[in-house]
Amino acid sequence: MTVPMPSFADNQTQFWIFAFVFGVVTIMGFAAGRWRRPASIHTLEEWGLGGRAFGNWVTFFLLSGDVYTAYTFVAVPTLVYGLGAAGFFPAPFLVIVYPMLFVVLSRFWSVCHVHGFVTPAEFVRARFGSRGLGALVAVLGITATMPYIALQMIGIEAVFTVMGLPGGWPLTAAFVVLALYTFNSGLRAPALISIVKDALVIWTVLAAFIIVSSNAGGWDGVFRVAEARFASTPRTDDGLLLDGHDQLSYVTLALGSAVALFLYPHTLTGVLAARNRGVLRRNLAALPLYTLTLGVLMLLGFAAIFSGIEPVGGDRNTVVPLWFNASFPEWCAGLAFAAIGVGAMVPAAIMSIAAANLFTRNIYREYLRPDASEAEETTVSKIASLTVKFGAVLVILLLNTQFAVDLQLIGGVVIMQTLPAVAIGLYTSWMHRWALVAGIGAGLAAGIAMLYQIPQRGGPDGTTVIREHFGGSAWPLSNLGLDTRSSIYVGIVALGVNLLVTALLTPILRGLDRRGDADRTRPRDYSADEGDPTIRRMSELVDGGTDTEGREHPLLTPRPGRYTPAGMYRPR
Question: Which among 7, 156, 40, 119 is positioned nearest to 539, based on CA atoms?
């Protein structure tokens, strides 16, 4: 099948269906501010976490919007289109990650609800008694999230390209609208819109599965054509099966991606919005079902090969939208485009809120305005969320898309360095705060040094050097003088360096430090649930003693000097 260059005149039906769905979603985004309307939305608990009151269904849609993003639905099948088996690494990493999430995140939910934490950096600050370490975790979280937000836009940009829309103004307009309703409604907006997003995605997956199955040859023909295509290329790293030299990279990338996923601030923000531990655990047990949809979408890379799809202007991110446009009826292609677009808006909104909360709580309030009111805090977070979104738009408009993809890979290496403080910190406070700082520094230095050594390769045989440095995340073992084509994911090595430095320095520093245990959490904080009298609303922690409606809250007697979100220890 020969697919002509996209023309807006030939995509009128697709555009108007996309515009209609986008309009409905925009109305829902603004209306979400009145959904379960609180007494005041001008607190981070309400604006940034939806009042911590989402039940089973809303939490399911919110977490699926967090994990399964537009970039996943566009980039993963694109990687399968180019390399075959190597593009399937998200399948094992999503199998690995949910048991990890089930075990770890319920503890995170409990301790954050007891103390009123909004960000993982606040937990780190209280657990290890170091606001500097907390601020470092916040900076790493913001740094890793920024390219992730930019990558959501790649999905929408690919859709606009296939519909024949010009330049960057449609992308800018889409994210102006996103910024406005996020500013107005906070986390309630992506939570409500995620319901529409999931309905569109499931519709698209079913339509794709049926259309491929009904074609001549069905899925068997698709695999045979894909196998012949990979066999005819001069590349050695593509095919329906992994080459022996690619297996180490595949395994470490899957494992590293699983570790990074639950450390990203937007994932933890969705977790904290759940009403109780039961809601969280039920959804973490159910979400692996959603991976089945991702499996079908991965196979669309092979379907695009079968249909003879060629990317627009060499941009492989357009492969899946082009296949939708060529294979679906016009109205159905419009709905598929809307699924990609809305699938980008939901995670981008959550990510911007998470990054804004990190800045507000762990930088602005910690260092600039310790006595900021809840209303001022919320206003700062809203402005920060706008800044993050428009910064991400500039990344897409001013930089090469492939470079933005590389930034996301670097972002994974960055966020993995918070694992000792955040994830391991949920189980022990043995690690010394300065050892954690040194470990993060060593891990980042090792990771950046390795990323610098990786060239970006392309061309027909996959060996032509396009860029000398920061060209990917798989570090060749040949750099160690080994005679092999195998490589390893940089994030795993960098995390290993981090853990080693932290473990070696902690006994030494704990022996020299006379400060003693600075942990402001208690063992029972990690198992508290809804209804436990130790769980308090943020307004109580900031204003003391009452909830948002002025009612007294039954409290157990806390230890003197209880940690507050303002970064102070308020004696009782």
Answer: 40
The span from the CA of 522 to the CA of 516, in Å, is 15
Is the CB of residue 473 less than 8 Å from the CB of residue 490?
yes
Q: Which of 198-202, 342-346, 481-485, 491-495 has the highest mean pLDDT?
A: 491-495
Q: pTM (2 decimals)?
A: 0.88
Distance from C-alpha of 355 to C-alpha of 385, rounded to nearest angstrom:
7
Pairing of strands 456-458, 464-467: antiparallel
Tabulate helix, strand, coil % of the chain (nearest 5): 70, 5, 25
Chain CA centroid to CA 389, Å: 14
Give, to the nearest 10 degrees, the angle between helix 490-512 and helix 247-261. Answer: 50
Q: Which two tokens stand for residue 352?
A: 């911007």
pLDDT in tens, 282-333: 998 888 888 888 888 889 999 999 999 988 877 788 899 999 999 999 999 9
> Which residues, other chains included, contact 94 with Cβ-Cβ below 8 Å and sequence gap of 6+?
67, 258, 288, 291, 294
Calculate what percentage of the chain has a pLDDT beyond 90. Answer: 45
For residue 476, the SS3 value is: strand
CA distance 462 to 465: 8
